[in-house]
Amino acid sequence: MKTTATCPECLEKLKELQKICGSCGYTVELVPAEELIERYLKRPSPGGLFWTQAYALGTRQYLWFLVSLIPIAGFVALGAMFLFGRRLSWKSGEWDSFAEFKKRQQLMDGLAYAWLGLLIAVFLYMRYVGQA
Q1: 88 contact partners, CB below 8 Å, separation of at least 6
Q2: Where do the TM regions start and end (predicted)?
């Protein structure tokens, strides 16, 4: 039988939250930090899809950067960075903390969204304004 230590102060706060939130339909869930990290790592990375080479360098995955430079293998690197980039980067162990890792991931994803927005803006400009 598995036993877990329970902090009486946290348990009391949780019971209080459950009383308040019971009427609105929300459920309060306690999730261990390791499980939250695993959930984050399983998500695909837009930075790896739209910004493959910069993503590989920015997340310290130097071998995948080199693979992305090879013409046909670059597509494999693109898929790997999109689907598994977060996990591969975290497992490389070159990060001081998960907070630093997550901040870098958010930066790389933000760059990907900015790049996608720029591409869409240029396309729309060329399509509708550039032909005038």
Answers
A1: 61, 64, 80
A2: 62-84, 110-128
- Whether the model clears a pTM of 0.85, i.e. scores above it, the answer is no
* C-alpha dihedral sign at 89, 93, 95, 98: positive
**Residue 93 near residue 30, CB atoms below 8 Å:** no
Residue 27, SS3 per DSSP: coil
Contacts of 32 (CB under 8 A, 6+ apart): none
Q: Cα–Cα–Cα angle for 82, 84, 85, nearest 5°? A: 70
- Could you report the per-residue pLDDT of 78-112, keeping only the tens digit for each? 999 999 999 999 998 888 999 999 999 999 899 89
Cβ-based neighbour number of residue 107 at 10 Å:
13
What whole-number distance in Å separates Cα of residue 107 and Cα of residue 55? 10
3-state secondary structure of 56: helix
- Which token pair is 67? 């693979």
Cβ neighbors of 105 (< 8 A, separation 6 or more) are 45, 47, 59, 86, 89
- CA–CA distance, 9 with 16 (Å, rounded to integer): 11
